[in-house]
Design goal:
single chain, mainly alpha, 2 domains, two-stranded antiparallel ribbon, 3 helices, 2 strands, 39% helix
Length: 104
């Protein structure tokens, strides 16, 4: 993964080290934001799902087994997409329940 996405990784590291670069990227979304508006804080870690070929899973990935439904990849917009994700899981529940009771 590091070999394939080294350019993106380099940009991420640069933005972490340079407040000016970080603010410049923020200004693409919020043009009026200034360096003085930003205060340092600890960084977080974001999990990123990969396919078996090493490519990134950029969207939601919902895995269903006999007894569970799991959201395996929830990229940044997960909070704003929680209702559609919930609807998709709810849509799958009757099938899951049927499989569980049919197996008994």
């Amino acid at each position: 993964m590091a070999r394939k996405y080294w350019k993106e990784g380099t940009v991420e590291i640069w933005r972490s080290l340079s407040k000016k670069a970080f603010v410049k990227s923020l200004q693409e979304l919020v043009p009026d934001i200034q360096e003085s508006d930003i205060i340092p804080s600890p960084s977080g870690v974001r999990a990123q799902a990969l396919r078996s070929d090493g490519s990134l899973v950029d969207d939601f990935y919902i895995e269903q087994s006999k007894r569970s439904i799991n959201v395996c990849n929830a990229p940044s917009p997960a909070a704003t997409a929680c209702f559609p994700i919930g609807r998709e899981i709810a849509r799958r529940v009757p099938e899951l329940e049927y499989k569980l009771f049919a197996a008994r």
